[in-house]
Known about the structure:
Helices cover 93% and strands 0% of the residues. By secondary structure, the chain is an all-alpha fold.
Amino acid sequence: MALGQALSRLGATSLQLVRQRLELASLDVEEELLRLVAVLAGVLTAILMLTLALAAAAAGVVAYFWDSARMAALLGVTGAFTAAGLALAWRVARALRDKPRFLASTLAELDKDREQLGARK
């Protein structure tokens, strides 16, 4: 009878452990999705606002220099847009490179569990 109870407790503990790990994984997935949605909303809003502001600024610069240096104004505005685009692309690439690994905390907990189970043998 003691062996049956021990196996029953082991099974219940194992199921509880698996359930906790699945809950942690689901929280990691939900957190990642919320972060992604927030980042996308911010990026799209920033792109829209900056596009409108840059278009207005570019039109103002070109209109100001239209009679005296129209080509220089157009090339200057184009160069500024190119530099800003490259800087933003670099920042996005860096953010994607430095983001945490998907399900990192879940995998770390599973590694701890594996180590603890291996140490008990």
